[in-house]
Specification:
Elements (H helix, E strand, L loop, with lengths): L7 H9 L3 E7 L4 E4 L1 H7 L5 E3 L1 H6 L7 H13 L5 E8 L5 E12 L5 E10 L13 E2 L13 E8 L2 H8 L1 H18 L5 E6 L2 E7 L3 H14 L3 E2 L5 E2 L3 E8 L6 H18 L4 E3 L2 H22 L5 E9 L6 E10 L9 H11 L2 H23 L3 E7 H4 L4 H12 L6 E6 L7 H13 L3 E7 L5 H7 L4 E4 L1 H4 L8 H17 L2 E4 L5 H8 L5 E2 L10 H13 L1
The chain binds ligand C2E and calcium ion.
């Protein structure tokens, strides 16, 4: 029997309370141990259970099962830090009681789940009101019969709340939640009900409301939260996204309503951040496609990354048009889905946590490729894309260094591009990592420079080697009326030079643009004019033709 089950701590915790139920699961064997109190109260077979997730799922109220499984899936996928949800569970008497279930995963050095441990608390009758905001909790939702009354439900989620907490701390986060909920509540018409849904999400039931009334209400909410003054005098502006569902027209049960609200909010956050989006067939289809993509991607990853491929887009030196290297861009064709473009499938990978595994595959393939080209084409600068989430993985540095050693790569030819720097919510930690990677010789690039609003801020706290100028400034440079783009790029490049950074200008689509940027002070150029991203064989033909000139 494994040590994790036999320690005194477990015994001590298990004995400490009779309405808190603790469990610990060893993931490798899928054997879990439950405290005596939980065995007795829930009528479990014994203290040790094999395949507890399925055994426990049998105890959960069918209407609440998806709340539990979705939360657990997100925790194991690494997209949610800890398991934390409320649902009804059947006890030994066959009654359903409300429990709050919390747990967390401990991972091994490879990032695989090793131990899952947590506790359940009975919350019957305890949490009608949320202790922080004083709003109703969602436990109260089961009093409503959504088939018998009409209205509109809104799920409102604050944008960037996590970033506020990491910048200013939990106290400021709490203050913001209280103030946010107060302002939203003040705007509600009489008879409407506002609930704290979870973390930074709020659920509104607007009985008898019309769509236009809700649109007006939402506009006022956005205006109200645009500048919230905190106790310390600091003003924080926050935006919110929202999903709306008409009941009973689009949902006539609590479960359906919550599902559709969550899908609509997810859609708003991804595609119309800061806006209100009502549930539609398009959203339902998008959600379905997201699930199908996720399944297909998981299957391909399991089959040794079958269907994944790297494409390469050249970096050329201005003036000479000589290929100095390339950016590695991911492509994928699934078993079922063959037409997914990178922005779509990478988002799905990021949402469920699969980007970590695929990202390491990209890292390994890019480095292997750099070395494979060395004898024929010399040292090429090879870049690959890494999101903030990937950088923050505990094993990132170790894997990078070990692949470099394994394949014999000279790190100074590897450029790691940080995509979507606006998502960085702990620049301090990232900056320390960048410094360590750079001291080992790796090169770092800040991608899409100029679009993400935080770019300039990022430049202040991160030391990098390259700035990649976003293609939206560059593409139409030669068209009339784009003088402003010229001024922006010219000044960005001047700034790079003065700060000692190299630069890569993306989006060079035609000869005219190539001529214009060629006269500026860029280190490297990239774009369809030189080549679209192409497969390895095609890229090698480009390299060959360059050599023969
Ligand atoms: P990105 O890093 O900004 O990549 C450049 C994108 O611009 C590529 O799209 C490329 O095809 C496109 N592009 C290149 N030259 C031109 C041009 O002259 N004009 C125009 N209009 N577009 C041009 P792609 O390959 O669809 O990749 C989209 C995004 O997907 C990438 O944007 C990157 O953020 C992400 N991505 C691709 N591969 C990976 C990967 O391995 N890991 C991660 N995390 N993200 C990746
Ligand atoms: Ca890139």
């Amino acid at each position: 029997m494994s040590d994790i089950f036999n320690n005194e701590l477990f015994e001590a915790f298990a004995a400490a309370s009779d309405n808190v139920y603790i469990y610990v699961c060893e993931m490798k064997t899928d054997i879990s141990r439950w405290s005596k109190a939980s065995v007795e109260y829930f009528g479990l077979e014994g203290e040790y259970l094999k395949n507890a997730a399925n055994v426990w799922a049998e105890h959960i109220h069918p209407d609440d099962l998806s709340i539990y499984t979705e939360d657990i899936d997100a925790v194991f996928a690494g997209t949610k830090r800890s398991h934390d949800c409320q649902y009804r569970a059947r006890n030994a008497l066959g009654e359903y009681v409300w429990v709050e279930c919390k747990g967390s995963v401990i991972r091994d050095a490879e990032g695989n789940p090793k131990i899952f441990a947590g506790l359940m608390t009975r919350i019957d009758g305890q949490s009608k009101y949320d202790s922080l905001t004083g709003l109703l909790t969602t436990l109260e939702l089961h009093h409503f019969d959504f088939s018998a009354q009409s209205g509109i439900a809104l799920l409102i989620g604050m944008d960037g709340f996590r970033k506020v907490v990491s910048n200013y701390g939990y106290n400021v986060g709490d203050e913001l939640l209280i103030e946010f909920s107060r302002r939203v509540k003040d705007l509600c018409a009489s008879g409407w009900k506002l609930f704290r849904f979870s973390g930074d999400e709020f659920l509104l039931l607007a009985f008898h409301a019309q769509e236009q009334q809700i649109v007006d209400f939402y506009r006022k909410v956005c205006h109200e939260i645009d500048a919230i003054e905190l106790k310390n005098g600091k003003k924080i502006g926050i935006s919110a996204s929202a999903g709306g569902v008409l009941f009973p027209k689009d949902a006539d049960s609590r479960e359906e309503l919550i599902n559709k609200l969550e899908h609509s909010l997810e859609y708003a956050k991804n595609s119309k951040r800061g806006d209100l989006v009502f549930f539609s067939e398009e959203i339902a289809k998008k959600h379905e496609r997201g699930l199908a993509l996720r399944e297909d991607l998981k299957q391909c990853i399991k089959n040794n990354f079958q269907g994944f491929e790297l494409y390469f887009q050249p970096f050329v030196s201005p003036g000479t048009d000589i290929i100095a290297g390339c950016e590695c861009l991911l492509r994928w064709k699934g078993e079922q889905i063959q037409d997914s473009y990178p922005m779509e499938f990478i988002k799905v990978l990021e949402d469920y946590g699969g980007i970590q595994e695929v990202g390491y595959w990209v890292m390994e393939q890019s480095m292997k490729q750099q070395v494979a080209w060395r004898s024929t084409y010399g040292e090429l600068k090879v870049s690959f894309n890494v999101s903030y989430q990937q950088f923050m993985d505990d094993t990132f540095e170790e894997r990078l260094v070990s692949y470099a050693e394994q394949y014999g790569v000279n790190p100074s030819y590897i450029i790691i591009e940080l995509t979507e720097s606006c998502q960085v919510d702990n620049p301090g930690e990232l900056s320390a990592l960048f410094d360590r990677l750079r001291s080992r010789g790796f090169r770092i690039a800040l991608d899409d420079f100029g679009t993400a609003y935080a770019s300039l801020e990022m430049l202040k706290c991160l030391h990098v080697d390259y700035i990649k100028v976003e293609h939206s400034f560059v593409r139409e440079l030669s068209e009339p009326g784009h003088d402003i783009d010229y001024v922006i790029i010219d000044n960005l490049l001047e700034m790079c030079k003065r700060l000692g950074y190299d630069s890569i200008v993306e989006g060079v689509e035609n000869r005219k643009v190539a001529d214009i940027v060629g006269k500026m002070d860029a280190t490297l150029l990239q774009g369809y004019y030189y080549s679209r991203p192409v497969c390895r064989e095609e890229f090698e033909k480009l390299l060959d033709s360059g050599r023969n000139e």
